[in-house]
Amino acid sequence: METTKNDESGRVLVLGAGYGGLMAALRAADHAPVTLVDPSSEFTERVRQHELAAGRTSIGHPLAPLLARKGVRHVPARATALDTRRRTVTTNSGEELRYDRLVYALGSRTRGADVDSTGGDDGRVFTSETAAHLHERLQDGRGRLTVVGGGATGIETASEIAELTDWEVELVTAGQVGPSLSDKGRAHVRQVLRALGVTLREGPAVTPADLDADAVVWNASLQPTTEPATAAGILLGADGRITVDEHLRSVSHPEVFAAGDAAGAWTPDAGALRMACATALPVGTRAGRNAAADLTGGEVRPLRFRYQAQVLSLGRHDGLVQKVRRDDSPTDLVVTGRLAALAKEQVVRSTVRALRIAAR
Ligand SMILES: Cc1cc2nc3c(=O)[nH]c(=O)nc-3n(C[C@H](O)[C@H](O)[C@H](O)COP(=O)(O)OP(=O)(O)OC[C@H]3O[C@@H](n4cnc5c(N)ncnc54)[C@H](O)[C@@H]3O)c2cc1C
């Protein structure tokens, strides 16, 4: 017998309303009743957090209009515990939510700097998650800022702040800047950083205590938010993400699917996917559809994904489009300058557009 969306025979519960979770909720809602748990009433464009630090006024979009047409119920709370035997999730408000299929999409946070939400113990260390506080600090008057981490997020943060504020900016990284880029791409990044007045220090790893800047932005790497999964006994891989099969189903708990940075997703074409908005959206789509299909007797399909390009902003007027192979390894083909800056802005806008389309 076919099950329809209105049958109360089963419910998909989605944890986290980032790129992965929100997309999963909207796609699952085409076929099953969905509840979405996230403490915020807004979807946050996390890929713009460095822009928020440098002065952009808002990077949030209200969830209510995105969820209304698909009838997704939003529970504004933090998931604190999972009971996989009883198939329940407990929230910080004490509510217990039942699920038949769960999509775990709690994302990630900056790894390595032990900071609270107001700038760390000495008020000096910030992360992407504390971008709004960093913005207030940058408004306090000119000073010296060190950005730690030479990956895409660190490069984007250093160039954005150097271009849009009058702070003196240094980028410090273990090894060389832009490790995932081609020599040509890396050369362009170095040239733009120099032109923006950013001092680049490549070499050994540092700790916040090694740095004497007035403010530090810690952008070293991302750590998946999988504590509730670990406590529930859900199997994680060596990278700390939920181990899933090609259908994004937990290998230890078949009623649990995972999406976004918390999922150790992979495809035969691309290998293990990196934590990125670019992967969270397609993975969220597939996880949401599969969770609903699994519940309603539909077809559960494998994830298909291959990389095409890495796209970086270098301030508001320059950028880098790095063409990559299907497994994310860089080729010699790069597009730079204003065209690349425009491409980056279009890519970022297209993520919100994709969510709006899914919401219809
Ligand atoms: C400054 C910056 C720039 C970036 N630029 C790019 C880029 O250009 N391209 C790219 O591909 N990637 C980029 N990334 C990475 C990208 O933002 C992440 O990979 C992406 O956001 C992952 O999506 P997600 O849905 O897994 O998690 P998130 O977007 O982190 O969302 C997780 C959600 O879970 C919620 N949540 C957390 N804990 C709980 C809980 N206990 N209960 C309920 N809800 C909870 C949070 O509130 C949040 O809404 C960037 C990241 C940063 C920080």
Q: What is the topological layout?
A:
Layout: E1 12-15, H1 19-28, E2 34-37, E3 42-44, H2 49-54, E4 60-62, H3 63-68, E5 73-75, E6 79-83, E7 88-91, E8 96-98, E9 101-104, E10 108-111, E11 125-126, H4 131-139, E12 144-148, H5 152-164, E13 168-174, H6 183-195, E14 199-203, E15 215-218, E16 221-224, H7 227-231, E17 242-243, E18 256-258, E19 263-264, E20 266-267, E21 271-272, H8 277-296, E22 309-313, E23 319-324, E24 330-336, H9 337-359
Parallel strand pairs: 1-2, 1-9, 2-5, 9-18, 11-15, 12-13, 12-15, 13-14, 17-19
Antiparallel strand pairs: 3-4, 6-7, 7-8, 10-16, 20-21, 22-23, 23-24
Helix pairs in contact: 1-8, 1-9
The protein binds flavin-adenine dinucleotide.
Keywords: FAD, Flavoprotein, Oxidoreductase
Domain FAD/NAD(P)-binding: 11-264
InterPro entries: FAD/NAD-binding_dom, NADH-Q_oxidoreductase
Q: Would you write up a description of this structure?
A:
This protein is α/β, with parallel strands linked by helices and about 350 residues long. It folds into two domains: about 180 residues, 3-Layer(bba) Sandwich (FAD/NAD(P)-binding domain); about 160 residues, FAD/NAD(P)-binding domain. About 30% of the residues lie in helices and about 25% in strands. It has a five-stranded parallel beta sheet. Helix 1 packs parallel to helix 8 and helix 1 packs parallel to helix 9. The two termini are about 25 Å apart. The site of flavin-adenine dinucleotide has 33 residues, from helix 1, helix 2, helix 5 and helix 8.
Question: What's a concise summary of this model?
Answer:
The protein has 360 residues and is an alpha/beta fold. The protein is 29% helix and 26% strand. It has helices spanning 19-28, 49-54, 63-68, 131-139, 152-164, 183-195, 227-231, 277-296, 337-359, and strands at 12-15, 34-37, 42-44, 60-62, 73-75, 79-83, 88-91, 96-98, 101-104, 108-111, 125-126, 144-148, 168-174, 199-203, 215-218, 221-224, 242-243, 256-258, 263-264, 266-267, 271-272, 309-313, 319-324, 330-336.
